[in-house]
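Class prep. Sample record?

___
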Amino acid sequence: MTHPLPATQLLDRDHSILQFNERVLAWAEDESVPLLERLRFLCIVSSNLDEFFEVRMEQHHAASQQSGRSDSPAAKHFQALSKAAHVLVIKQYKVFNDQIMLDLGRQGIHVLSHSERNVHQRRWVKDYFERAVKPLLVPVGLDPSHPFPQVANKSLNFIVKLKGKDAFGRENVIAIVKVPRVLPRLILLPDKLVHKDEKGQVVVSLSSVIRAHLTDLFPGREPSEFSQFRVTRNSELAVDEEDVRDLRTALRQSLQHRNYGQAVRLEVSSGCSPFLSQFLLTQFELPEEALYAVHGPVNLSRFTQLIDLVAKQKLLFAAYKPEWPRSLNAQRSILAQMREKSILIHQPFESFEAVLALLREGVNDPAVLSIRLTIYRTGAESEMMELLREAVLRGKEVLAVVELKARFDEEANINWAEALESIGAQVVYGVVGLKTHCKMLLLTRKEGRVLRRYGHLSTGNYNSRTAKLYTDMSYLTADADITSDMQAVFVHLASQTRLPKLKKLWVAPFHLHEKLLALIAATGRAAAAGHKGRIVLKMNALTDELLTQALIRAGSQGVQIDLIVRGACILPAQVAGFTDNIRVRSVIGRFLEHSRVFYFRSGKKEDLYLASADLMNRNMLRRVEVAWPVQDPELRQRIIDESLVAYLLDTKDAWVLCPDSRYTLLGKALPASQVRHSAQNALMLRYSKTAEGLP
């Protein structure tokens, strides 16, 4: 029997998440990246940190509070995470102010504060405030009959300290101004207001517009102190699935309260006085560690609006249009081609349109009798969902397994579930207590006297927008074993009957975890016996302790292990006498690395699986996931070359996890004369005619 390694020998998951965001921030600092794309990466860090606080920090804050002691392990962990987050936020705003904003000005894009605006610009801004902003603002002066208003999660607000007395002669000194979300956070001034010396475009932020006219909101009183503020709240939906009759209705009701969960972070302007910041901390029942005084807009993630406002193509990545998959003939039936062989689509280098074309063909083919699909993140507007509606109207049997608890996509999924159900589709919500995270599409077609199945499995979501931004693998197959396994999984999700013994699919939470553990162990035994042992795994995160420990043991037995982990990784790499044979790298590029590829070699035996799951405890035990083998030699080699080898050879976008648990950008260690190799750029060049001229 093997004994687990002490958890203290593993890396901390949450610090690893913050390190990932440091790597994303590096793209915002990189002057070789187009300027507006640098701004986009900067805003992605803000969005990532929002979710980190909403989900991860809330748990640690609660544990720290429950411990009741400032020196408890939970409290110390919360304090250490807070310190690391503060360091990252300070660096982020330094990049924003000292690099991005200055470079925008050099490119003729000016985001002007009130003091920087000339007389004509101020006049226009005042008119805009009176017309479009002031009518929507209702300042609330605080007193016993006017308590602190409900402030929504991540909304922009102002706190104001006032001199003088109100209309009733009372000295209620604090007022709160809530800023409606319907107002644009950035406003482009008309070209006629741009001074010839500025030579470009002038933008003003909504916060600066309100700040310049705060006095107009309080006639007869004078603001003596003020600050923007933004509170981040716990966003987990508290629904007891075991104790509700209708999960959809319960979730819709719970969504109404998501914006008002427990506060976990308070952002204020750097000039916010101690009096006002302490007042807010007390109001939201937050410790000092939760206060983030920032040198810039508190809602920095909303600065992505600037990219659309100015729309300078020269400051963006060169346009990239995915081509139709090379392995598919666009002039022939996709179903007919699937009968001949399994097909691989590498997104976004190849177009997701082929997946839509498959479903479209199934909807229009009278011989296709049923369509089954899992829905995790499709987006508020989805051609796939419209095609499912059309299939129902054409009399086909449609089963949609909708995951209502896909975080931050709950409302869109509820709406799709209701729309499909209203026209007669069979809609189910998976298994109580588990998230259905697998991505499967199954068509059943009558061919002569038999029924034949056609399946699509994917490492990513059925979402046309993210399919252009995320790297994923789509697998189209008519393999009888795989499609019969898919059928069994759909029946299980709908009826909750036991899964039969499957031929090829590995399914969580039933046996995916144990199958991976067994395959890692077998590779280790082969290496210990003198055979070649090799493991290469590509995923978004590695945080499952049992899998991590299994990999460390296999490495100690002589297996050479390479892990390509985009985000959090708890396995310490290249530690002498511990993980000498294990290397970890993270590739951060133009596209979000999202595919999950698992490769094992024991002697001459090779196994390669694609999966919907990362190597996280939640994916193994609390989600319905699938992994499937790729056995065709040509397809398997293609995946090895494009998803593994190309990334192991990356010397431009790859970060290497060092023995001291820090990540180092590999390209920085290379001589200046050496050409850097980017896996993503190489794949774009390989697949698309529009990618010419990439570095």
